[in-house]
Automatic annotation (TrEMBL):
Keywords: Membrane, Transmembrane, Transmembrane helix. GO terms for cellular component: membrane. The keyword Signal does not apply. The lineage of its organism: Eukaryota, Metazoa, Spiralia, Gnathifera, Rotifera. This is EamA domain-containing protein. The keyword Transmembrane applies.
Length: 380
């Protein structure tokens, strides 16, 4: 056997060892590449979880939410303002030629956050996030009204699903409870007198009505939050077209929201004098402020890496996160009707997001075709 033949005959165990050494590394590399290719999704999922946890914390602390917001908005305003003014050297009060859009962005962004918190006084987080998620549908309807977009069959289907979902998710609990108490007569209660039964029934109706009034006040505030968010989306769309920096927009809205939170806190203490919970304000306020900054950073990274419509669909998981947190910490469960209603609302948003994605794709292909048609003429 020649020396060349000996070099060609490599032992089998050597080949298998080399393959075993290369396979795990290449497998892990492929996994990393695939995860990195869709890193926008992971940023969005992480941001949603952090946002839900940061919001849910407010339900567990013995302090007023708006007192906590004073510190939270202070932290955000300082960070956004410092970044925009000292690092990027932007004018913090520049409207970039869009004064109306800038004013709407400030008012609607503040209104979205503050009405969301006000609704959280009266609603479970799952109900609040479900109603808030309807902003995608309202934004599409408002675009038809203000931006002269064409109202399509898809918009009608999404609007119908949203209305049906809202009815199912926010069903009149007090009617169901009242009727169940009225008609649920067990054998042990047969001897109760008519007067006692009437008084008990009346007290049930009154207590249920009080609970219902607060619940639907929360529903109304949550609807206001979703509507203002839809208007905010349209205003920000106009500002993005003029290259208005996100840091400037965020500073303007957090500074205005800080002023509103301070005013509300002072006015509330005129009727209910009480000391400020400084300990909770600083510890929880700084924590939530930092969590919101992380969330904003992750949202920005997600927008750079993934399609907006896909991220909007992922946002529906906020409802699921809220249900899980409520069950873990409060042992609060929801009825099947709520999940059906939430599914209708999520489906409406998904339909609109897919339709917008297809429209944008067609528009890009059309622009690409026009560019290709112009290039041969230029070359000639």
């Amino acid at each position: 056997m020649t020396e060349e033949e000996q070099q060609q005959q490599i032992p089998l165990h050597t080949i298998s060892a080399d393959v075993a050494e290369k396979t795990p590394a290449s497998f892990l590399k492929r996994i990393y590449q695939r995860l990195h290719a869709h890193s926008g999704i992971w940023y969005m999922l992480t941001a949603n979880i952090i946002f839900c946890c940061g919001t849910f914390i407010l339900k567990l602390i013995p302090a007023d939410m708006f007192d906590i917001m004073i510190i939270r908005f202070s932290v955000q305003a300082i960070v956004f303002g410092s970044y925009a003014a000292f690092y990027k050297h932007y004018n913090l009060f520049d409207t970039n030629g869009q004064p109306i859009a800038s004013a709407l962005n400030v008012l609607m962004s503040s209104g979205t956050n503050l009405s969301y918190l006000a609704a959280f006084y009266f609603l479970p987080l799952s109900d609040l996030n479900t109603i808030k998620y309807t902003y995608i549908v309202w934004a599409a309807i408002l675009s038809v009204i203000f931006l002269k977009d064409r109202f399509k069959f898809v918009n009608g289907i999404s609007l119908t699903l949203t209305v049906a979902g809202l009815i199912l998710a926010t069903k009149p609990h007090f009617f169901i409870k009242t009727l169940s108490h009225l008609f649920d007569v067990s054998n042990s209660n047969i001897t109760i007198t008519t007067t006692t039964t009437t008084m008990a029934t009346a007290s049930i109706i009154i207590s249920a009505a009080k609970v219902s009034t607060l619940y639907y006040l929360g529903v109304f505030l949550a609807f206001i939050s979703s509507l203002t968010k839809a208007i905010q989306m349209i205003a920000r769309k106009q500002l993005v077209k003029t290259k208005q920096p996100y840091s400037v927009m965020n500073f303007q809205f957090t500074a205005f929201a800080l002023i509103i939170s301070i005013l509300y806190s002072l006015i509330r203490r005129l009727w209910l004098p009480e000391p400020y919970p400084w300990k909770w304000m600083f510890t929880v306020g700084i924590l939530i402020g930092c969590l919101q900054l992380i969330t904003n950073t992750f949202y920005a990274k997600a927008l750079k890496r993934e399609n907006v419509q896909l991220l909007s669909i992922i946002g529906a998981l906020d409802i699921l996160y809220a249900c899980i947190l409520q069950y873990i910490f409060l042992r609060l469960t929801k009825s099947w009707m709520f999940y059906v209603g939430a599914s209708f609302i999520a489906l409406a948003a998904i339909i609109l997001s897919i339709d917008n994605h297809l429209m944008n794709k067609k528009q890009r292909e059309k622009e690409k075709a026009m560019t290709n048609n112009e290039n041969p003429k230029t070359n000639v």
